[in-house]
Amino acid sequence: MAPPGARITLINDTNFLTYAPLLPAAAAGTVDPRHIVVPLRERLKRTMLRVGYVTGGDPAANTLRVEMISGNVKEYRYDHLVVALGSVSRVLPIPGLTEHAIGFKTIAEATALRNRIVRHFELAEGLDDKEQRAAYLSFVFVGGGYAGLEGIAELADFARDALKRYPRCRETGTRFTLIDAADRIMPEIQPQLADFTRRVLGKRGVEFRLGTTVQEVRDDAVVLSDGDTLIARTVVWTTGVRASPVASRLGLPLDNGRIVCDETMRVQGYENIWALGDIAAVPDPARPGNPCPPTAQHAIRQGKLLGKNIGSVMKGQAPKPFKFKTLGAFADLGRHTAVANLMGLRIKGFAAWAICRFYHLAWLPGADSKSRLIADWSVEILFPRDLAEMGQLGHPPALGDSGPAAPVPDQRPVAALQPPAGQSPTD
Which of 3, 114, 220, 355 is the most exposed place for a label (fewest CB within 10 A)? Predict the structure, then answer.
């Protein structure tokens, strides 16, 4: 803990924290998107929050340049700097990818994806041509990791429930396809659990194209490396993450885009600069010679220890090394089913699903947020999903215009997969 009188300033591009593991549930409408975000001003009582974007830094002068949301550029001086910029979607130089695909890493993308699916159901219901209808009812997920599997499981269930309200769409049916370059899904868990996941989702109609890559993404199709072309107007990109490119503006040592740190999370070569989470290459005690994986369970525990380490240093004490080792992993497959690897123990089905729910409830910050989440889960059991398409939220018509709000055809956030200004997709 920081000593009394310490002044703490947080620079962030939003005034909330997103609990990312529940993004698939938010996209599928089983939880309200507002209930998986935590307002920073409510939780950080001792912290001064400033909403803006880091544009650069001078470690030698202990300064940080920030463009505020007002457009003004301010310079902040610090005694200690903590870099926790996280990660962004890893984008490959595939023709049409950034123009036609949508990511699945932010609350904006999850909400836009749900709205897009509902809008495509509405479009398909009004079409007479079955082939055109099928394109709007086909969905391709690229990436066989946790995000891809949880996302396609939740949204396939959402689409199945939605079909009950759309007679013409029900006649055509939906198609969900998962593509991955590897020969198996979720390489982080045991093959038995991965096989179980594939069987469960296969029974729900999900198709798997493994050992295959995407060569091109078109407005209405995906071209694969094996020569096949999948007709689909929705492509979801979940092939992993890379460290935020903002790290390159800070003048700090990098390793594959991640800031190089020692075992106490101090940045190499600096006594007063620290880093944690996806942006930091902190030595992994479980895999000597490798950095910690970019997972939430590592970032959370790094944050707790780093706060104590800075407090210790300010009191003249030595910081402690990060010693946490992965406890396991799980994937929520919906319909009261999940898979979990807990310290080598394989768990699947309802027991794993219950563990997933308790885990999320334990780690979501704040009693109010936990209560809202429990309420959402209860409503999910008692009532059908809401199919209102709210893509025009935030896009009101011009004052005095009696017509509808400006259309947002694909409900895709602007530049969802575009790299930051000045960066190429492979930087």
Answer: 3
